[in-house]
Q: What sequence folds into this?
């Protein structure tokens, strides 16, 4: 048989357990969104793992909340019995004030908590599903790399690829090295259309491509012109004394 103080301590411990389980849930949710945002190809695996964790977590919260409700009922029952056992009117009045404090212990119904947990889990799953859908071909082919110019070169897309900007500094005055820029680096060859938009008069950049056989092909692209180049690795080099700027876009990820 628990004393009144023991019941109070037990209830506080059970409520603390519920709070800890909710904290684990929020931590897992935050970690899932963070990792998924940084590494989109992992979203599908994060989604599956999150669903399994959330269902187990919801079940544990439901059990802990039921225990908290039981201890709250026991506290109220024992407090009511203590008040009724007092013959002294002054003491009874004092205990009635304490009863108001005890009566304020109103834990939420376990079923309400469980349904709320499932709704939150469903919302997170939907958001992760949307992130996965928007990821598209990049998630299907994680080997497709992101060039240092900042554009993601998808292996396939429902819409034509939009031009992405590139910018290269001028070659240093001592001529010791030429600035280079990696536009593509993937396991499968692809075709890019590279355009040289802004630079010095008569200047050009050199597009260097590598293929499976190790062949290296170089192409000059003069200011105001464009060139279609293909390979597994595509790199630009600026040998002019002025900065160079232009655009590039993916034309095809299947080369003959």
A:
């Amino acid at each position: 048989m628990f004393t009144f103080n023991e019941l109070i301590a037990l209830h506080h411990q059970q409520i603390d357990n519920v709070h800890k389980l909710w904290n684990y849930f929020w931590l897992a949710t935050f970690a899932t969104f963070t990792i998924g945002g940084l590494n989109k190809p992992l979203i599908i695996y994060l989604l599956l793992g999150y669903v399994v964790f959330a269902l187990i977590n919801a079940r544990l919260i439901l059990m802990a909340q039921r225990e908290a409700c039981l201890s709250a009922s026991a506290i109220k029952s024992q407090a009511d019995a203590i008040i009724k056992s007092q013959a002294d009117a002054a003491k009874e009045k004092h205990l009635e004030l304490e009863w108001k404090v005890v009566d304020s212990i109103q834990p939420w119904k376990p079923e309400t908590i469980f349904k709320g947990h499932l709704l939150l889990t469903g919302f997170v799953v939907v958001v992760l599903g949307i992130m996965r859908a928007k990821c598209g071909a990049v998630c299907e082919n994680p080997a497709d790399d992101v060039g240092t110019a900042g554009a993601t070169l998808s292996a396939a897309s429902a819409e034509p690829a939009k031009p992405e900007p590139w910018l290269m500094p001028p070659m240093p005055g001592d001529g010791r090295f030429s600035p280079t820029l990696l536009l593509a680096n993937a396991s499968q060859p692809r075709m890019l259309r590279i355009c040289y938009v802004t630079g010095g008069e008569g200047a050009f950049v050199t597009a260097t491509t590598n293929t499976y056989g190790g062949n290296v092909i170089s192409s000059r692209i003069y200011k105001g012109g464009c060139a279609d180049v293909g390979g597994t690795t595509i790199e630009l080099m600026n040998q002019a004394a002025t900065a160079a700027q232009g655009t590039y876009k993916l034309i095809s990820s299947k080369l003959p």
Q: What stands out?
A: The first strand starts at residue 164 and ends at 168.
